[in-house]
């Protein structure tokens, strides 16, 4: 069965080249080609504000890939990638999941129409993958979307991946309500994979420097939460081993790889399961 691309994607949308875009900054960090001079300049400023910031974005992407691979090899075959951002040259969610299980189904969501047009171009020949133009903080709308209901069996476990959007939602109450919605609507066995820029002990000025630089460059809010604040977002989910840890320490299948650059400590991630 072919999963149709959401018809709400508007190919006539155009990005503002004079303001850095979160999606394009990540693309630049991952050595992609879908970014502009303003995005690369913003990335340089962020690296100056927090040495190793580019490595942080790369570590976040590598963590995302490890999580998807880990879940797919353990039988999860439905993945909802929220606020997915621009596709990369390789190891996108559907590619990683479908290497482990060719029948795995993946749905990407975003609110940026041009981001989704890039996803559509990537997915033209993939029958088990779709994109939906939707706000990831509105789970009741998203999980009732025709594309989601057609693609997924919502009586079976779903992996909800929120690995880039948490720091861009400063409102704790709205974010917690959205995550509670996914927990309430999805069946037992579903998982939440979540990562966020965080403030470990001894982080010094770096989190505030990231926030100021990001907002000045992108004109959008960003927030580095405390590790305790991130852990609270897993309310109702049981954290799986190794728990909520720095991204480079999340290796359930092997040894941790430690990268000493300072900004590497500024993000944490975990995977939680809905037991009942």
Which descriptors apply to this entry?
276 residues, alpha/beta, eight-stranded mixed sheet, 10 helices, disordered N terminus
Short description:
Strands 1, 2, 3, 4, 5, 6, 7 and 8 form an 8-stranded mixed beta sheet that branches.
Plain-language structure description:
- Strands 1, 2, 3, 4, 5, 6, 7 and 8 form an 8-stranded mixed β-sheet that branches.
- Helix 4 (93-100) links the parallel strand 1 (78-81) and strand 2.
- With 276 residues, the chain is an alpha/beta fold.
- 37% of the residues lie in helices and 13% in strands.
- It is globular and about 45 Å long.
Oligomer: single chain
Low-confidence stretches: 1-14
In this structure, how is the largest beta sheet organized? 8 strands, mixed
Q: Determine the strand fraction and express it as a percent band.
A: 5-15%
Outline the secondary-structure elements:
Layout: H1 22-29, H2 37-49, H3 53-72, E1 78-81, H4 93-100, E2 105-110, H5 113-122, E3 129-133, H6 139-142, H7 146-151, E4 159-162, H8 172-185, E5 191-197, H9 206-218, H10 227-232, E6 238-239, E7 245-246, E8 267-273
Parallel strand pairs: 1-2, 1-4, 2-3, 4-5
Antiparallel strand pairs: 5-8, 6-8, 7-8
